[in-house]
Write a structure and sequence with these properties.
Blueprint: H1 2-17, H2 24-43, H3 59-85, H4 87-90, H5 94-118, E1 130-131, E2 136-137, H6 139-164, H7 169-189, H8 196-240, H9 250-261, E3 270-277, H10 280-287, H11 289-305, E4 312-315, E5 320-326, H12 330-345, E6 357-364, H13 371-387, E7 393-395
Parallel strand pairs: 6-7
Antiparallel strand pairs: 1-2, 3-5, 3-6, 4-5
Helix pairs in contact: 1-2, 1-8, 2-3, 2-5, 3-5, 3-6, 6-7, 7-8, 10-11
Catalytic activity: 2 GTP = 3',3'-c-di-GMP + 2 diphosphate
Cofactor: Mg(2+)
Keywords: GTP-binding, Membrane, Nucleotide-binding, Transmembrane, Transmembrane helix
Amino acid sequence: MVFHITIACFMGMKYWSSKRRLYLTPVAFGFACSALLMLGTLSSYPDWLSCNPSPVVKQNDAVIYYFFRNIMMAILFMSSIILYYFRRRIMHSWKAHVMTFAACIVLVLTIIFLSWLYSSHSPKLSINFIDDLNHTFTPLWKSIISWLLMAVWFITLILIICLSKLRNIFWYSGAFFCSAYLFTLFRLLSTVGELDQAWYQARFFETLCTLFLILVLLVDVFILYRESNHKYVNSYQNSIRDPLTRLYNRSFFYDSLNQQLAKVKAQHPLSVIISDLDHFKRINDNYGHIAGDKVIQFAASVLDSHSRKDDVAARIGGEEFALLLVNTSENEAQAIAERIRLAVSAEQTALPERMTISMGVYTTHDRSVTAEECVQRADEAMYEAKNSGRNRVVIWRRQGG
């Protein structure tokens, strides 16, 4: 009973999270009603809590509730697969949602009322599936009812396979659920003599099947979480990356620079390198923007390959790049910049012509310096490299210092 309530809650929450899954509502109602009918089954064992060694057992009532529970579950599973098949036509209509809820509620209440009415609560309408004295099934059960239930579940299984094409794990579990009920009914049908052992075996198998369905739902939740997390990571990366080069963008670079400036000490200097491709406009003018994009991607790949784990390489302008070097002295930053410059200016067979890069380096030990000042000073050094003939690295120096 608890398992069925759990499954009903799972289905209800999945529908609530996405109203496009209207087909889940009949299943949710089915398992919720099934839990209520199981209470009726427990009422057939009036001394089940008192541990009476000789309890009075109304097995016929238990089978009546079992019969109506099977009918109700099969009908709601059929409704679910039909809604799934027509999901693209009716899911966006609020009338479809209202009508589905209303139909499920009416069906559930009707089944609960009929199961209560045909049990021993109404002797005039009571039907006998079991002889409570001999604990054996009556001919009505063996000849008609059990075969009727098996036919209903078989039709449900065929509908699930044909209409869903078993496209996902949910419908695989639905097909397994139908097969499990067919097996339990066949086990009860094949019983000879007293049915106690067969009844408990059937209920045990049904419980295992329900546990399996819960496991499937948990797996589905895990898959949804993994997909959601993957989409979140991709979305976050896209928000901090430059789409052309996949380096970090200007916003992330400044955020990282501000964070690292708060940690700057005399023993932990911070260096910033600003670089700009030389004569890049000529590439665009002579060879087109596609060739220009290839040049930018090439320079970005060189910058990224020479970056360390804690460094931040970013594209902050059209052909302008920045490199944030954590715990890096001025001499170390200059050496890194020189390696990048030489790598960029090396022979490039994939580019339309040889490219060079001018770079400016600024190093600080003072946390009072702002991020804008760091970039501005490195930028000034870079323009000094441009004005000095390009294709070189210049260290920022205070004027008159």
